[in-house]
Sequence to fold (227 residues):
Amino acid sequence: IQMTQSPSSLSASVGDRVTITCRASQNIGNYLHWYQQKPGKAPRLLIYAASSLQSGVPSTFSGSGSGTDFTLTITSLHPEDFATYYCQQTYTSPRTFGQGTKVEIK
Amino acid sequence: QVRLVESGGGLVKPGGSLRLSCGASGFTFSDYYMNWIRQPPGKGPECVAYISGSGTYTTYADSVKGRFTISRDNANNSVFLQMNSLRVEDTAVYYCARELKGWSRSSLDYWGQGTLVTVSS
Fold:
C-alpha cells in the first residue's frame, strides 16, 4: 500500500493552524498513525488509529479520516512543533510510511 | 518507565554480517510484538521486520527477506536482528520499537535511540 503525504514541506509561523494530509492507495480503515520526528531523534507517536491522541501528546494535535484519506491538524503551532511528520499504515504488510512532511519556521 | 536500547551497529563491508540487539525494560516484554524499523540518511522510515510476543510469528520486508532474521529472547528481554549479505542500500539508522495491538492498531509507541549501520567498502 502506497502512502502519499502532502505537502512535502511547508513554512508556517508560531500560532498558525497547520494541516497535513495522507492518502492511502487502498482502503486501510483506521489503521493509520502519525509520528513526529526531530533531527537526530527517533520518531514519536502522536496519533494512533487515525484519531486517537497518544498519551502525553498536546491536545493541539488531532487526526481525522478513514478509508483512504487522512488528516493531521496542529491547531496552533508551538516552537517545538517544527519537525518532520510521517503517516504510517499498519493495515497490511509491508507496513508503509509516507514520505514525510517537513514543517519549517517561516 | 519503558526503555529500549539498541546496540551492535557499525561499519561493515558489502556481503558482510552484523547482529543488532535491543534490550528492553519497564514492561512485560513477552506481551508485545517488537519491530525493527530503519531509516536511511535523509529518507523516511521503513519497516524491516517484526516478531510476535512468543516469537512464533515473524514478518519481513521484501527488501530483506532471506537475508535478515529477527528473533527474541524473552528471558532476557531482548530482540535481535541478524543481518547477512549486507548491501550498500542497507545503510541506515536501525530502531527497535514496541508495537501496540488491539484498538491501537499496531502503532509503535516506544522507540529506541537507534544504531547506525554503514555498509561500505
